[in-house]
Every structure is written in structure tokens, then in C-alpha cells.
TrEMBL record:
Its EC number is 2.5.1.61. The gene is hemC. The porphobilinogen subunits are added to the dipyrromethane group. It catalyses: 4 porphobilinogen + H2O = hydroxymethylbilane + 4 NH4(+). This is Porphobilinogen deaminase. It holds the Pfam family Porphobil_deam. The modification S-(dipyrrolylmethanemethyl)cysteine is found at C246. One of its GO terms (cellular component) is cytoplasm. Binds 1 dipyrromethane group covalently. Residues 10-217 form the Porphobilinogen deaminase N-terminal domain.
Length: 307
């Protein structure tokens, strides 16, 4: 049983999409299994990022729009924690909030989804490809400049329906989301990280909480995955040093072995005509991220992003 001085109930704030609910239920199960006697309840809400679907995220305020309503619920005492896809969490959190648990990473790759073609290489010239990500768009165009890459917003099911309705020849989604929703059959192929480097934090579910609450921090510490946390810190440190976000094509992916961390990063112009990719190995996650960012800045990364 949990200790008497610890909380015996947590309210989890979640977006109301199927994927967000899967993630929140996953965290609920982890917490209840790790802390016998703890009861977790999920409340759902629709964020501004879910409501505004006719414009790209970089035009309406960025990925923080997926978090604001959940953070308000915590501030007003309606929820204790919020669950997010880490790739949707900006490197700078609002004052008073913190990330308390990084859950084990699912496959971080991008997935190629199509009803007619097996891979990016099989697409004909001028094929229409849908993605909501400037990062994906830039890397796709760098690899296949002949493609017609168009914006695609909405939850996983909405995007798949638009593909099925014939609006796109293919769409690119995070493999992790499709795997978690048991839609692996929709994946025609996984895109090699050498073609499309994953987003910062892609595949990691993270839990946000009010930083001044030590009881909640203690509960979350018990479900934290060390490998996921370390890799996330390296990727987010790089992103912060470059001041990246959904407004610029930027990617970072960290791999951990017993002795070291390998961080691979990419910055590009939105049309993919300029693309810089670098790799660095180190042992301290935050220092590694900063060092790789500085290395790329010295080689002209800022000039590419400013375009």
C-alpha cells in the first residue's frame, strides 16, 4: 500500500483523442501497479490545438496549444498531472510546471502510410504526401524534391480518413502512435532515420505536474524510465540551445548504450534545399545536446533556420 503521508488519488488531465487517452491509460496503469492502493482518474478536454485544424501549427502558436487547457486544469486544482507525447512539449515549460516521468520509448521512427504505394521510393513524381510537420516536410523534400508535400492536421483517425478519401497518395505519421493504437497494419514501411530523423522526444510519453508538489514528484519518480529520460534530456538540450520548435525544421535523436550516448541532429530550410546533419558522442546528456548545437551553429545552422 502507499504510505499514509502520500496521495491516495490522482486526477490525470488528458486530451480527448484516442491516442491521448491510450497514453493517459498507460500512465494510469503504471502508477496504480507501482503504487498499490493509489487510484487514478482521467478527465478529458479538447485543446486549442485540437480545435484549430485549418492552419499549420506554426501559424497559430505552436505545439504548446496542445497543453494549455491541461495546465490550466492543474493550476485550478481540477487535475494533478497531465500526460503528453513528449514531441508535443516545448523545451520551455510555463513557470511552475515540470516533467516528472519519462516512460519507456516506443519505436521513434516515422511511418510511411499509403493505400497504393509501399515506400517513399515507390511514389511517382508529383505524388501528394500529407504531414503536419515542417521537420518531415523538409527531410522528404531533401530526399525527393519532386514530391508535393501538403499540410495535414487532425488526430490519427482523421488523418487516416483523409488518406482513405483519396486526398493524399501517402501520409507520414509517427510509428509509435500507430503501434499504440494497434494500427500497425496501416504502416507500409518504416522510414529510415537517415532519410527522416525523428522529432525531439518522439515515441516517449511524459507526465507533467506542478513542480512545488513533492508528493506527486515522488509518485512519478517510481515510473520514470532512465534510458528514456537521458535520451530525452540530450535531445531537448540540443533543441533548447538552437531555440527550435514547430516553427523550424529541426530534429534530434539520441541512442544510449552501456558506455555512451550518441546524438544525431538535423536542421534544414523549409524547402529541404539546405540540410545539415551532425553526430556527436558523449556521456552527459545535457552537455552533449549543448555541444552538438554549438558545433552546428559554428557550421551555419542558425543561418539555415533563420531562412
Amino acid at each position: 500500500m502507499i504510505q499514509p503521508d502520500k496521495l491516495d488519488k490522482l486526477i490525470i488531465a488528458s486530451r480527448d483523442s484516442q491516442l491521448a487517452l491510450w497514453q493517459s491509460r498507460y500512465v494510469k496503469e503504471l502508477l496504480e501497479q507501482t503504487h498499490p492502493g493509489l487510484i487514478c482518474e482521467i478527465i478529458t478536454m479538447k485543446t486549442q490545438g485540437d480545435k484549430i485544424l485549418d492552419r499549420p501549427l506554426n501559424q497559430i502558436g505552436g505545439k504548446a496549444l496542445f497543453m494549455k487547457e491541461l495546465e490550466v486544469a492543474m493550476t485550478k486544482g481540477r487535475a494533478d498531472i497531465a500526460v503528453h507525447s513528449l514531441k508535443d512539449v516545448p523545451y520551455e515549460l510555463p513557470e511552475g510546471f515540470a516533467l516528472g516521468a519519462f516512460c519507456q520509448r516506443e519505436n521513434p521512427q516515422d511511418a510511411f502510410v499509403s493505400n497504393a504505394f509501399a515506400s517513399i521510393d515507390d511514389l511517382p513524381r508529383g505524388a501528394i504526401v500529407g504531414t503536419s510537420s515542417l521537420r518531415r516536410k523538409a527531410q522528404l523534400l531533401a530526399y525527393r524534391s519532386d514530391l508535393n508535400v501538403r499540410d495535414l492536421r487532425g488526430n490519427v483517425q482523421t488523418r487516416l480518413k483523409k488518406l482513405d478519401d483519396g486526398l493524399y497518395d501517402a501520409i507520414i505519421l509517427a510509428a509509435a502512435g500507430l503501434i499504440r493504437l494497434e494500427l500497425t497494419a496501416r504502416i507500409k514501411s518504416l522510414i529510415d532515420v537517415n532519410i527522416s530523423l525523428p522529432a525531439v522526444g518522439q515515441g516517449i510519453v511524459v507526465v507533467e505536474y506542478l513542480a512545488q508538489n513533492p508528493q506527486i514528484k515522488a509518485l512519478l519518480n517510481a515510473i520514470d524510465n532512465e534510458d528514456a529520460r537521458v535520451c530525452a534530456l540530450a535531445e531537448r538540450s540540443f533543441n533548447e540551445a538552437l531555440q527550435g520548435g514547430c516553427h523550424v525544421p529541426i530534429a534530434a535523436f539520441c541512442e544510449k548504450d552501456a558506455n555512451s550516448l550518441q546524438l544525431t541532429a538535423m536542421v534544414a530550410s523549409s524547402d529541404g534545399k539546405q540540410l545539415m546533419r551532425e553526430v556527436l558522442i558523449g556521456s552527459n546528456a545535457i552537455d552533449l545536446g549543448k555541444a552538438l548545437a554549438q558545433k552546428m551553429i559554428e557550421k551555419g545552422a542558425k543561418a539555415i533556420l533563420q531562412q
